[in-house]
Input
Amino acid sequence: MTEKHTVLWVSAHPEPQSLTHQLRRDGIAHLRAQDHKVLESDLYAMGWDPVLRSSDAHLSEGQRFRVSANVRQAYLEDALPPELRTEHEKILQAETIVIQFPLWWYGMPAILKGWFDRLFVSGFAFGKDPDTGKRLRYEKGPFSDKRALVLTTLGDRPASIGPRGKSGEITELLHGVLHGTFAYTGMNVLTPWALPSADFTEDYDQVRQNLLTKLDQLPTEPPIPYRPQFTGQYTDEWELVPDIAPGKSGLSIHIDNTDPSSAVRGG
Output
């Protein structure tokens, strides 16, 4: 990775001596050795509170908590708690966001899910343009200038997260965060890096080198070509139009693999 980049590295593992943290330390050191700026959010070390509460919106006692509207108003009034404003600044500074976590029950640890819940709020990560009223999502999302990469370790065998694997192909397995969070907010989503059978890792040097090679490709790797929302490929009900991938269903139809150049920025 020769182009200088600002990376926000968000990690979620409770054990500092874990494989996750070892990879985190080596990955961050590698980026910094190449003069990239790395911002860090080690959620367990920070004691991050993952629970979204009415206190995030500074509501009066007894006032009904309308989550989206109240937190949006607090954001627009710069009245969010200071820990949220600090994380927002990191996100805004970053050109690439790296999310690292062990896969627990086919999802993110609760502490990381709560990072998204409290930070990716209306007005900041999605919403409507105050002047035009247009919805800000997918290729029109506010983070269309950013890239996103998921790094995960998991217990499943390699084949189980392949195209015919019982756990689901890795991009589909992580569809919620890749498409429903990163792509939804406009980010260019890179193919995730996954280490299966992580508890049985024997050759750490090989795993480390594989990760560093992935990190070197952060600015240049083509993103997953998720279909854009606003170019006529979807109906007003957000359903793929009948003449695209006719007769097919499932998550894979929302990726346009017909032409590598069809990847839409932020979509």
Summary: The chain is about 30% helix and 15% strand.
